[in-house]
Amino acid sequence: MHSARLPALMARIGQAGGAEAARATVAAGLTWQTCATLLHISDPYAGAVAALLIVETTVVATVSAATRYTVGCLLGVLVAVPGALYAEPGMAGLALVVFASALLARHGFLGHHGLHVPTTALLTFALVRGRHPGELGAHVAEIVLGIGFGLACSMLLFPAVRVRSAERALEELRLLIARHLDGLADAVVRHERPRNRLGAAWEDDLGTALTRARTAVDEAHESLRWNVRPTARRRRWHLDHRVLRTLTDVAGQVTATGRLLDAHPGAPEGTRPGSAFAQPYARLLRTTALCAYSCRGGRPHPALPAARQALARLGAPGRGPADAAAPDQCLLRPLESALTCLSAPAPAPPDRAHRLLDPLRPPPRR
Description:
This protein has helices at residues 2-15, 18-38, 45-54, 59-86, 90-105, 116-129, 133-156, 164-190, 194-198, 202-224, 230-233, 241-263, 278-293, 304-315, 327-343. By secondary structure, the chain is mostly helical. It is elongated.
């Protein structure tokens, strides 16, 4: 019982940012202790603050934050030193340093770390102007140690791997697409508007799920970069961006189909539940829902070729160019595009067959 509760507790702590806070705490503590022991600094707050500010959720984000923090501090020092040494009177030099550092802080590359440009510039100006270069060197050494410990702790102390959240987001997206296609099939059979079956905000729900899945997949790929954990070295083929692009295209075609049915609820040929078009079209929508839910990379669903053949038969019966703009033909085009997207080759899982597991396989000829 306790062994089952421990992973759940750790997962909750990780979701609440506990792992990131622990890495930042360890980095700040190591920086403080190292500065006090090796540099003999009684209160090395600058290094501890630097370690706290650069530790982010992923290794890539930590490296980016460390780069921006370093550039901000370096620009502040470079602006303040000439102003403190050569600008007279002191108030004119201070005004020049503040003005220049405030302009540099607004550079888009620095982001919110641009605040460190005027802060570092003011501290450096005060130390240089007050003839305390040794204290300035000590602060610079603290900051260097803090950045180093922050990077090391972010890389080595169980860096985050955000794969499960991306898997959940993609699963929710697949399930929502399948439900919407099934709801459209019910609307076709019962000759109702899709919003009556799926709700008035069904398009917004699909867009929200797409945005959430896109963000989660990007975070998952970012968390796998420069990650030393063994689980991060395995290629997550089912989280490939091509799978997400396929689901995005299918969701767009589902939205287009829903809008057509919403604008013309009687578009399927005839208005009887047993018409020659409505029932096969509804079955085709449900088959497409099954194929969309099975879009996880690798081979497509076995029902996909049959669905394409059924689509070809449904649109075949002797329609000439004059009937090309018929309502039922307009309904077939988005569905054809969705099936084409699902038929595109997707990333396949890695082949991990071993000789010991398959001893009867003949060796390749030389």
